[in-house]
Specification:
This protein has helices spanning 3-7, 15-30, 37-44, 48-54, 58-84, 88-101, 103-112, 118-139, 147-161, 173-188, 211-226, 233-239, 244-247, 254-279, 283-300, 303-309, 318-342, 346-365, 375-386. With 396 residues, it is mostly helical.
Length: 396
C-alpha cells in the first residue's frame, strides 16, 4: 500500500461536533421537520452511513444539538461573568455580545423543543436554569425581587439576547449588540409583580357550527401541541369527527389549512391595530395598546403562534409569501410607531421590537408559565418596558 493510501484523507479533529453544528444551522434555517438526515450529511460533506455511525436518527441529532446549545449558553455565561467582574452593566453587554455570536445557544431549543421527549426537555431546562441562576445572582443582588420575578426576568432576558436570530438586523453587528444591550438593560429594571391588566376588549365568541372553522380550530390545536410536520390530515379529521378524505372537501391540502390559520391570525392582529389607533391618545399609547392586543391574541388562541412557528413548512408554496408579507406589515407598524416615539431609525427600532416580540413568542412556544392567569399581563408589562414605554400605563 502506498503512503498516500495509508494516510488517506485527513479526518477532522471533531467530526461529531461538526455534524451537530451543521444540523443546528439547518434546523434553524429550514425547520426541524423539513430537514432530513441526507440534507445534514450533504451539508457536512459526509455520507449518510457515516452520519448514522454517530447518531441513530434525526431526533438524536437534534437532542445533541440542543445540548450543545446549553453548553454554549454556559460557556457564554462563564465568559461574561469573568469579563464583568461583578459589574451588572458589563455583564449584560458581554452576554448580549456572546449570545449574538452563539445564536444556537439561546435559540434552537425554543424553536424545536416540541420534537424532544419530556425527559430530554427536562434535561435541557435543568442545564439552562444553572446558567440563568448565575445571571440572577449578579443582576439582582441590589434589588428586592421575589424568586419568581427573578426567574421570569432572566428567562425573558434569554429571549431578548437571542432575538437577533429571528430577524435580519440592518445594523453593523456591534451596533445591533448595543441596541440589544439597551433593551436588556431596560428589562432587568422592571418588577413583574407591578403588571396591570391588559387594556383589550373581551373576546367575541364565534359560533362553532361552521365545518371549516372547526377544522381550523382542531388543526391549530394539533399543530400547537406537536408541530405541523407530524400531524396528519386523518388526525385533523378525527378531531372534528370526520374522515381524513372529508377534510379535503373543505381544504385542498394540509398546507392550505396552515395558510388559512395564518390568514385568520393576521386578521385578528389587524383588528387589534385598528382598535389601538381608534382608542390610543398618542403614538406611545397606540403602541402600548398593540402590545396588549398581541399578547391577548397569542395567549388566548393558538393560531398566531402556530403560523409563526411553522412558516418554514410552507417554503416553496406561493401562498407562503402572503403570510410573510402579513407578518412583516404588522411588525412594521410597531417599528414605525417606535421610531416616532423615540426619534430613532427604523433599524434601531427593529432590534427593540423583535426583542419584545421574542419574549412572549418564546414563552408561549415552550409553554413557560402560560397556565398562570397573570401571565398575559406580565408579558405585556415586560414588553412595554423593553420598548421604552411606560410599563404600566393608566387604565381607561
Amino acid at each position: 500500500m502506498t503512503r498516500s493510501k495509508q494516510a488517506g484523507t485527513p479526518r477532522p479533529a471533531n467530526r461529531k461536533r461538526q455534524l451537530i453544528d451543521h444540523s443546528a444551522q439547518l434546523f434553524l434555517q429550514h425547520g426541524y421537520p423539513q430537514v432530513s438526515m441526507a440534507d445534514i450529511a450533504r451539508a457536512a460533506g459526509v455520507t449518510a452511513p457515516s452520519l448514522y455511525r454517530h447518531f441513530a436518527d434525526k431526533q438524536a441529532l437534534l437532542y445533541a444539538a440542543v445540548l450543545a446549545g446549553v453548553d454554549g449558553l454556559q460557556a457564554g455565561t462563564d465568559t461574561a461573568l469573568a469579563a464583568a467582574d461583578g459589574d451588572r452593566h458589563a455583564f449584560i453587554a458581554s452576554v448580549c455580545g456572546s449570545m449574538a455570536r452563539r445564536q444556537n445557544a439561546s435559540t434552537l431549543w425554543r424553536w424545536t423543543g416540541t420534537y424532544l421527549t419530556p425527559e430530554q426537555n427536562r434535561e435541557v431546562v435543568k442545564g439552562t436554569r444553572v446558567a440563568l441562576a448565575q445571571w440572577a445572582d449578579l443582576l439582582f443582588t441590589d434589588r428586592e425581587l421575589l424568586d419568581w420575578e427573578q426567574r421570569q426576568l432572566v428567562w425573558t432576558m434569554l429571549s431578548v439576547v437571542g432575538s437577533l436570530s429571528v430577524h435580519r438586523a440592518r445594523l453593523p453587528a456591534a451596533q445591533a449588540v448595543r441596541e440589544l444591550t439597551a433593551a436588556a438593560e431596560r428589562l432587568v429594571e422592571l418588577t413583574p409583580s407591578l403588571a396591570t391588566d391588559l387594556r383589550v376588549p373581551p373576546p367575541i365568541d364565534v359560533p362553532g357550527d361552521d365545518r371549516r372553522t372547526e377544522i381550523l380550530d382542531a388543526a391549530a390545536e394539533l399543530f400547537s401541541a406537536r408541530g405541523y410536520g407530524p400531524v396528519t390530515v386523518d388526525e385533523i379529521g378525527a378531531a372534528v369527527g370526520i374522515t381524513g378524505p372529508s377534510v379535503y372537501k373543505h381544504f385542498p391540502s394540509k398546507a392550505a389549512i396552515l395558510i388559512e390559520i395564518g390568514r385568520r391570525s393576521g386578521a385578528r392582529l389587524e383588528v387589534g391595530v385598528m382598535a389601538a389607533y381608534a382608542a390610543g391618545s398618542d403614538d406611545a399609547d397606540r403602541l402600548a395598546l398593540m402590545v396588549d392586543s398581541y399578547v391577548a391574541t397569542i395567549t388566548s388562541i393558538p393560531d398566531l403562534s402556530v403560523s409563526f412557528n411553522n412558516a418554514s413548512a410552507l417554503s416553496g408554496d406561493p401562498s407562503s409569501r402572503e403570510l410573510i408579507d402579513i407578518q412583516r406589515r404588522y411588525v412594521m407598524r410597531w417599528i414605525s410607531l417606535l421610531t416616532a416615539i423615540h426619534g430613532i431609525g427604523e433599524a434601531e427600532a427593529a432590534v427593540a421590537v423583535h426583542a419584545a416580540l421574542s419574549m412572549v413568542n418564546d414563552a408561549v412556544r415552550v409553554r413557560r408559565g402560560v397556565e398562570r392567569p397573570d401571565f398575559p399581563a406580565q408579558m405585556a408589562y415586560l414588553m412595554r418596558g423593553v420598548l421604552g414605554l411606560s410599563p404600566s400605563p393608566d387604565q381607561p
